[in-house]
Please model this.
Amino acid sequence: MGTGLVLSGGGARGVAHIGALKAFEEYHIEITHISGTSAGAIVGAMYAAGNSWQDIFRFFKVVPVFNYRRYAINKPGFIDTLKFYKDFEGFFKKDDFASLEKKLFVTATNLLDGKIKIFSSGELIKPVLALASFPGVFTPISINNGVYVDGGILNNFPVEPLKSICDKIIGVFVNPVETIQIKELSHSYNIINRSLQISLGNQSRHKFKDCDFVISPTGLTKYGIFNLKTLDIILDIGYNAAIKELEMHKHMI
Model:
């Protein structure tokens, strides 16, 4: 048994997870199990490997996502996901779940059978890359007999793997559905982004009851899932939201 951490997807908003990790460190909270998808799984995998929140944040800041060298050629997507493999290698002792310091579960969507797949053993980096593959933008990843993309499509708050093995579960959800102004829907991208936010929020909210408490930072709505220019702001939003919740739940930690 131990303390589990659920990390939702959310693209660039996933940097708020790193802010939460910073707060956990200050409150001396020891996480033993992690379950995540999409950006939450990237953060979770790096954290499970023993990397500091500073090193994880540095990864998001310096790795050039939309660089022409990453463009896909003769593959279904604009960015070739496998071209990030070497960027991930330095964060793990071995390309194996068994090398991690904390138990990790990550979820990806299998395009062939339309089902969710939970990875928790064997090869590590390709599953993590797969579940961060936003459909149509990043190319899917083939693993064994499946073709995988972002797990957030089917389960953006994967609390299930932790329910029977953890004494306490903390959730961090970075896709809160907040009321916006009509002027914020002026472009097709805004419509797509807002629709995705509503979908992910509504599929996840009913699972918050499975956690002891959930950190759901407000103010993230204005930051798009591919907005990489405001990562410092997003980090601070996640940190401040986590501090607020940890203060409210001191008796539980």
About this structure: The radius of gyration is 17 Å. The CA atoms of residues 26 and 243 lie 9 Å apart. The chain has a mean pLDDT of 89.
